[in-house]
């Protein structure tokens, strides 16, 4: 298939960064943003001043507000917040060409339905060819062209090879898998775990506790992946462990910074006040807990974060419950 034009749905920091990547790969890019201020800023100044300030954007990127402007694109990257993906794809449906690859770049589990993003895509655009892009990547670094490696999950090997070859400009390296569920599972949980790591930092519990939390959090991630039908080795790669390490290691992460504020004693309302972009982990935590309980999984860190964000437990109560868990073999949970 020809790949000369690409559409990016979502004018936030990550959507803008991915538009930059695709433009550097040589495609003409239409970035659809619902905020007119974003479209005006990019059109006038070649900068997304609202969400990615200070980074000049490639001239091949044109910004539009209407979904209709994506109708003729050869492939589409869907980058809205996970909880808005369904509504966004439904709005795009009248302009969608059957068979067009749709690369899902949102991370999370849909609240209420407990569906993965690939499930949402299958229900809203059943004639789309699905793919998942996930891995350790901060938008600002990607947009500036700093070295980044991520996972691209595509069921069809030939399409996967074509996408990988077409969307790999210098500095942005794709690794291919056919395990879409595994690629999604890591991204769905890592934002919740990053909140926990932020709490550890905010409470000044030390680097040992931080390392232990990442490791035990990765065990929860692996359990979720396998229970959903993915492969453990997938989340051991960039889209799972890699993404977890990055998101849990820097206050650049909105999720870790939320946890940091909570660990320092702020309430959830105080920590979220004035934030234009809400941390995905805050939105996904209830769905992660509901799905884990439905599957009968032992995920104490994720459950503790969900309880804290829902006002059901304090930081000290969550920490105490984790430290008082029964002693067991490491591989038992």
From TrEMBL:
Q: Where does NADPH bind?
A: 14, 34, 107, 139, 254, 278, 280
Q: Which family does it belong to?
A: Belongs to the NAD-dependent glycerol-3-phosphate dehydrogenase family.
Identify the main location: cytoplasm
**GO terms for biological process?**
carbohydrate metabolic process; glycerol-3-phosphate biosynthetic process; glycerol-3-phosphate catabolic process; glycerophospholipid metabolic process; phospholipid biosynthetic process
Glycerol-3-phosphate dehydrogenase NAD-dependent N-terminal domain mapped to chain residues: 7-158
Per UniProt, what is the name of the gene that codes for the protein in this document? gpsA
Q: Which residues form the active site?
A: 190 (proton acceptor)
Q: Which reaction does it catalyse?
A: sn-glycerol 3-phosphate + NADP(+) = dihydroxyacetone phosphate + NADPH + H(+); sn-glycerol 3-phosphate + NAD(+) = dihydroxyacetone phosphate + NADH + H(+)
> Known EC number(s)?
1.1.1.94
Report the Gene3D superfamilies cross-referenced here: N-(1-d-carboxylethyl)-l-norvaline Dehydrogenase, domain 2, NAD(P)-binding Rossmann-like Domain
Q: So what does this one do?
A: Catalyzes the reduction of the glycolytic intermediate dihydroxyacetone phosphate (DHAP) to sn-glycerol 3-phosphate (G3P), the key precursor for phospholipid synthesis.
**Is-annotated flag, keyword Lipid biosynthesis?**
yes
Keywords (A to Z) from UniProt:
Cytoplasm, Lipid biosynthesis, Lipid metabolism, NAD, NADP, Nucleotide-binding, Oxidoreductase, Phospholipid biosynthesis, Phospholipid metabolism
| Listed InterPro entries | 6-PGluconate_DH-like_C_sf, 6PGD_dom2, G3P_DH_NAD-dep, G3P_DH_NAD-dep_C, G3P_DH_NAD-dep_N, NAD(P)-bd_dom_sf
Biological or metabolic pathway of the protein: Membrane lipid metabolism; glycerophospholipid metabolism
Q: Which lineage?
A: Bacteria, Pseudomonadati, Pseudomonadota, Alphaproteobacteria, Caulobacterales
The UniProt annotation places substrate binding at: 107, 254-255
Query: What cellular-component terms does GO give this entry?
Result: cytosol
Answer yes or no on keyword Oxidoreductase: yes
**Residues of the Glycerol-3-phosphate dehydrogenase NAD-dependent C-terminal domain:** 179-319
Q: What is this protein called?
A: Glycerol-3-phosphate dehydrogenase [NAD(P)+]
- What's a single GO MF annotation on this record? glycerol-3-phosphate dehydrogenase [NAD(P)+] activity
